[in-house]
Each structure stands twice: as C-alpha cells, then as structure tokens.
Amino acid sequence: MSADAAFRPTLVRNVRISGPSARFIPVSGPLDLLLEGDRIADIAPAGALRTTGPIWDAEGRWAIPGLWDHHVHVSPWALFAVRENVHDATSAREVAARMAAVAPDSRGVRVGVGMRDGLWQSPPTLAELDEVTGDIPTYVIGADLHCVLLNSAAARREGITVPVDGMLREAPAFRVHASLDAISDDELDAAVSAAATRAVRQGIVGVVDFDMAWNLGAWQRRGAAGFDTWRVRAGVYPQYLDRAIAEGRVSGDLLHDSGLLEVGSLKVITDGSLGTRTAACSVAYPSGGHGELTVQLEALVELLTRATGAGFSVAVHAIGDVANTRALDAFALSGAHGSLEHAQLVGRTDLPRFARLDVTASVQPQHAVDDRELARHEWAAQHAAAYPLRSLSDAGANLTLGSDAPVAALDPWGTVATAVGRSRAGEPGPQDAEGIDVTTALGASTERGSRAAAELLPGSRSDIAFCDADPFAADVEGLRAMTVGATMLGGRFTHV
C-alpha cells in the first residue's frame, strides 16, 4: 500500500535485509518487521506475523539502519541554495565578474559561496574586486568556510578594514559569516526545514550540527515550532560554554520533548584549513609558513578539562598534523572523550592513538577528492598520512562519516561511495589506497560509528532507510546512484 510521510505502520511487509544484520536471520527471502512505538519488536519471514494495525508493503526494498551526517553547519548549508556558487571559477577576476552579475538580496548585498582560491594562478586584489563589483557590498565565502573575500563596500558595511587582497581568514572570517547569516528566525528556520526535507529523501535520520551561533536556542525554537524531520546533536562553541553550563546543560540533554533534539559536544577549532594554508603542519607550505595553531596545548587542555568536568563531550577540529598531535595530547592529558574532526593530515605515530584514547575520527571523505590537486601541491613535502581513512580504520579507530556541508554536499551516498572508491563520480578506480569497505563505510554513517554500527534487530530503534537496491552488494557507482524509497524515523515515515 502507499503511504504518506508521518504515516506510522505497525507492520512493514516484504523487506530484505543484508549486511551485518543478516547474520542473525536463519532464513532467506523477504521478511516482515513488527513495530511497537519507536522500536522493532519482531522480525520474521514474510507472512508469519499478524497485526491489527496499519501495514506498509516495502515491495522487496532493502532495509538498512538510517544514516547520519556527523558534521554539518546547518544554517550555512540551508542558505547555500540561495547563494551564488563559484566553486568552478578559476580566477579572482572570474569570481568578480560572476558576482557582479548577481542581483543583490533583500539586504542589498551579494553573497557567493564555494570559492577555491588555492587553485587560482594568482591571488586576488581588493582593487580588482572593487573595479568589477562596484558599490554593492559583495562577499564570497571560501569552500572550506575559513576565509571570506570582500569588496570595499562590504568592508564598510561590516565596519572593518580588509587587507590588500580583500581576504579575511579564520576568526575575522567567522565573524563575517555570523553577520551574513543574521537573517530573521522565520526565514532561517524555513530554509532549514526545506533543506532537511530534501535530505531525508536520501535516508538521513540524524545530523551533528556545528553552527557557530547559539545553537541550543535555535534548536529549542525549531522543536517548539514542530520540527521533527531528523535527530539533531547541536554543538556548542567555547564562547557559549559558560551560558550552557549556567543553564545546566550537558551533552545528551534533550532540547525538546520530542526526544529528537539534544545537546551535542563542545566544538573547539584548533587550526585552520588546507584551502587557506592555515592548517598547522610540521613541514612548511611551498609559499612559506607552517599554518596556524589557534589554541595552544595548555589552553586546550584547560578547556577540555573544564568541559569534561561540566558534562560535555568534545569535538576538536584538527586538520594539520601538528594540530592532530596536539589535540590527541589534550585528550590524553584532560581525560576528555569525544571526536577529532577532519583528521586530514595525521602523523603516522598518531594513527594508533585514536583507538588507544578512544577518540572517534570524524572524517569527511569528499574532502580527499575535492582537495586532491591542492593537497598534491601544498602537502607534497609532508611526511604525515593525508586523508588516512583506511589507515585509521586498520589502526582500530572508530570512524564517523560526514560532509562538512556546505563545504561538500550533504549526500550520504556520495560520502559512502567516495569513502569506498576514493574517486570522483566517473573517475576510474581508486586514486589511492585509503578506501574502506562498504560495511565499514555504512557503519560509520550510522549514529555511533563504525565500531558500534547500528543494526536492524528486535529491540533496535526503528530508524530505517528502505533502499531500492542492496547497498552491501553495490559497486562504487551503484552506491553513488543509490535511491531510497522511504525513510523511517522512530517508526514514523519522514519520506515515502
């Protein structure tokens, strides 16, 4: 039978299950799932279970645990669709020309996204940008979110001075992000709701949100307004930690009685990014400099110790090998628990420390292919392992996969395909030896990660994606093209 989103069946008929969960099922062929509340109550061969409640026929689709994206900046991602994407521009002049053709928004500003200035042959200049964009405030956000290009009109609007290249990096750039995202709550929440509805069509049931604003309040507001599309763990940044502690918040606290929205980790950014050449590295970049360690070890240990004592898990952003080493040191010295976000360049002696310290490696596979050419140039002399997905897994680390949206698309199947194939769509074969198997990749895309992967068993939560093909038997391009016929959250359809 057909069904609408929000339909809650008591029996799902004609389901197929493969992958790790299949080892507990003694018979082959279609199965029925009996649901009670938000749990799977029973699994039996098709036709063997009875119910007096509503029934949905899965028509032979393959059921897998619902998927999570473990690193999203929800507000910028939701607004990405209404901003000019210049990711494929090859020069500052091309970016300026494209932005000059964009109509100003309701605030009288132009905003572009996706800039990849590290691939340009020459750096931008403020004079060139002003010449082409004129007196309309114009902003272009870097693909990695760690830099913003502004013309003089935008600088006047912000009340700041910008360098001769028009570029702000790291903390000053983040402040401009906050300014650009400061639209009305109603407008922002409508964009978030629309974007979330699109995501559930891919089997997404949960996200970890690292918005830089007061995120707990935003999700309390959305919960009160009826948001029930995903599960959300809402991160807290250091500037809001005192407020969170004063309100009695700890990681895992519910933000709304729906049970879907909860307090996440303290997010700490300890270095920059490859794209802005600010990731803290042991070997200098070709243009000079070792990047920027934005939080020194002593301060990081103090911050992690305080957060842990207050009941918070922590999520530490570290991209360069020096930043990764210092972050792992801080976990060891503070007794903190949580994740290391990105882990893009990791010292080879640090790989086993993730498992030993029980620090999750929260990684974004798409960055490895998006940054390939840049990494080959900027990190050619590095001795550490670049984007070491398989190496981390082989060393026993718990992996969680995400997109870093809007830095990369929130596309769980593209994420899994890239984690396995280490290639872009249409590219031949893996481009390196760091791909992982599909079982690990799908496990890393569930709520607790690869070492505690969700399964479909009696008693499991009924967060389920019903796929139109068997993902555990798919090749890389089959994973990339995977379609999801229905998504269930706690026994209720969010997409069908």
Key descriptive features of the protein:
496 residues, alpha/beta, eight-stranded parallel sheet, five-stranded mixed sheet, 23 strands
Question: Can you give a write-up of this model?
Answer:
The protein has helices at 74-80, 92-100, 126-133, 152-158, 171-180, 185-200, 215-224, 241-246, 297-309, 321-334, 351-357, 365-370, 372-378, 389-394, 412-421, 438-444, 476-480; strands spanning 11-15, 31-36, 39-45, 55-57, 62-65, 67-72, 84-85, 110-115, 138-142, 147-150, 167-169, 204-209, 231-236, 261-269, 314-318, 338-342, 345-346, 359-363, 385-386, 399-401, 464-467, 484-489, 492-495. β15 (314-318), α10 and β16 form a beta-alpha-beta unit. It is globular. The strands form five sheets. The chain has an eight-stranded parallel beta sheet. α1 (74-80) packs across α6 (185-200) and α9 crosses α10 (321-334). The model has no long low-confidence stretch (mean pLDDT 96). It has 17 helices and 23 strands. The protein starts with 10 loop residues before the first strand and ends with a strand.
Oligomer: single chain
Shape: globular
Q: Largest sheet at a glance?
A: 8 strands, parallel
Spans of at least 5 consecutive residues whose pLDDT stays below 50 are none
Mean pLDDT: 96
Main sheet strand line-up: 6-12-13-14-15-16-18-20
Gap from first CA to last CA: 11 Å
